[in-house]
Write a structure and sequence with these properties.
The chain is 43% helix and 11% strand. By secondary structure, the chain is α+β, with helices and mostly antiparallel strands. 32% of the residues are buried.
Length: 208
């Protein structure tokens, strides 16, 4: 599936060229423990070798998969959308930081918190990787006043971006996280328990 330019920060590429290139899509939810496990393995043990070992052969796409049974899922992915707006090159470092702090955004830790207060905490996570907290929060904050037309579902400045992500993801039929697609087809052999070595063995097998 193609990637909209406005979401270009979701791609981790190895000197991508228009020639034969494998696309690996990672459908991940920031508040899914299994997504965190897969992300951390890739980010820590696999990605450092991608530029030198698989140059111009593969690209990874982070597909932000909101899971509605986690009420905070929309909020954390909105933060990801805000980062993409402000500094796409910070998206992967931000994702790493957010996965590191993911338990802080589980149900028990947000249930008594106002929505904008959760956004403020997410902005701090973004600030930890070099973004301007104030600008991130400015994109996330939801007003307590109606729009000029009287509408009450006012959303925030990344609401439309989230709608596009959800629409694109629904077309694939992906349900659980993490889910991996290889060149647009679900790869059922990969699990969150894959080690760095297993990922490399799998990559070596598909890149011929």
């Amino acid at each position: 599936m193609a990637l909209a330019p406005k979401f270009a920060g979701q791609a981790y590429s190895a000197n991508v060229s228009p020639k034969a290139i494998h696309t690996i899509e990672l459908y991940l939810d920031y508040v899914c423990p299994f997504s965190a496990k897969m992300f951390n393995t890739l980010y820590t043990y696999v990605f450092p070798d991608v530029p030198k070992k698989y140059a111009s052969r593969i690209q990874f796409l982070f597909r932000q998969q909101i899971q509605p049974w986690h009420p905070s899922s929309t909020l954390v992915h909105e933060a990801g959308a805000a980062v993409l707006r402000l500094s796409p090159d910070k998206f992967w470092p931000f994702s790493a930081a957010l996965f590191e702090h993911q338990k802080e955004f589980f149900d028990v830790n947000v249930v008594k918190e106002a929505r904008n207060d959760t956004y403020k905490r997410l902005a701090k996570v973004a600030g930890s990787v070099g973004l301007d907290e104030g600008k991130v929060y400015g994109l996330l904050e939801v007003s307590d006043k109606p729009n000029e037309d009287g509408s009450l579902n006012v959303g925030n400045q990344v609401t439309n971006d989230i709608k596009l992500m959800v629409k694109a993801n629904r077309r694939t039929g992906v349900h659980v996280t993490p889910t991996v697609l290889l060149n647009g087809i679900e790869e059922g052999s990969i699990s969150s328990g894959f080690t760095g070595q297993q990922w490399e063995e799998w990559l070596d097998k598909i890149i011929t």
